[in-house]
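User: Let's play a game. I give you a shape written as tokens, and you guess the letters that built it. Ready? Here's round one.
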């Protein structure tokens, strides 16, 4: 991804150019392509689930149920990713894309190139993960 010449050109831009029209267009195109890919894959997963539900082979029911469980988990992950992609596209339209939802600071091109759906800058994300880790320890999840 970082070997992508277009991504390299964006990274070479001065800091003052952060989230200019060219960068926004780049991320919008990347998010739209990822959205189409996830929607296509999600449709394949839904078809596989439907085919498994029609399966009448009672001898392999445990294997079929395990496969269904995995497909449902995959569909859930893909649905959440699709929601994040759509939220990122709305942030582009609103002019908020690329800026931390918590601090308002730039998220940074390197982070957005790796995770175009990022809503938090690295520091805010680390704080969030520390809070989650702290609360999971308090609940005894660990």
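Assistant: Ready! My guess for every position:
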């Amino acid at each position: 991804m970082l070997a992508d010449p277009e991504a390299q050109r964006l990274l070479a831009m001065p800091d003052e150019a952060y989230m200019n029209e060219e960068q926004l267009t780049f991320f919008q195109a990347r998010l739209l392509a990822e959205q189409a890919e996830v929607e296509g894959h999600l449709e394949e997963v839904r078809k596989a689930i439907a085919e498994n539900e029609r399966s009448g082979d009672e001898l392999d029911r445990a294997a079929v149920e395990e496969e269904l469980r995995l497909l449902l988990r995959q569909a859930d992950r893909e649905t959440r990713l699709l929601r994040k992609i759509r939220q990122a596209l709305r942030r582009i339209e609103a002019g908020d894309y690329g800026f931390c939802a918590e601090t308002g600071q730039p998220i940074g091109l390197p982070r957005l190139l790796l995770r175009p759906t990022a809503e938090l800058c690295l520091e805010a994300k680390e704080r969030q993960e520390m809070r989650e880790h702290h609360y999971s320890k308090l609940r005894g999840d660990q």
